[in-house]
Structure formats: C-alpha cells, structure tokens
Amino acid sequence: MFTAYLEPFDVYPILQQRVLSVLQGLPEEVQRDFVDDPRFGVDIDNYEPGKGWSLFMPTPGPPGHGSRRVVLRPKLDSASEQFAKYIIAHEFAHAFLRNGGWGEITDVEEAADALAASWGFHRPQSLV
Hints:
Blueprint: H1 3-6, H2 13-25, H3 28-35, E1 40-44, E2 68-72, H4 81-96, H5 108-118
Helix pairs in contact: 2-4, 4-5
C-alpha cells in the first residue's frame, strides 16, 4: 500500500524503514486519506549547495486543496530513531491537516506536534 511512498528512499534504507514504520503507525483513516489523495506524496530533499534543488510538486487546487507533498531530509537516515520518527510524523501531520490547525489549536506547528503526539510520536525532550 505504501510502496510508492518508499521509493524515493531506496538509497537511505534506514530512513526508508522509518518512513514505513511511521506510515504503518498512523490511524487507518489517516492512511486512507493519504493513499486516496493524488496530491499526497513523500520525497527526499535533493538540495545541492550552489545548484539548489528540484522537486515535483502538484499544483495547488482550490483553497484548502494545495499540494500535500512531504519532503524529508537525508540526515534523518542517521539521526536518532526517536527524533527521526517524530519529524516524519510531524510532517505527515502537516499534510493531514493541510497545513492548518487541529481542533482549537490554531498555530500550525503546535497543531502538527499535538497530532503527531496523539499518534504516539512525541517531540523528544532534546532536539539535538
């Protein structure tokens, strides 16, 4: 079900496994929301100093229907597992919330943190 989301991470096997683990840990309704929306996708940040980067981003639709592309950095392959999974879940939460609030939480970063925590991916005490 998640094969297409894992392909960009073929050269980062640890990160690939972490992305899969987080996807499998999401509630079924969230998994379905992602799988059923062609605007959702996951990619690896391919930034090169002096060159920039190139990523395919689906064009935005009507208000509230923008791209839902999650772009992850290669360094998550070597980061601690807890930190990496938190970041992945946090970014998936942004995609699920369409970069908006959650319930009464209107700050988009706080909303993504709270939703990721509700999925079991809590912000580590230390982010270093």
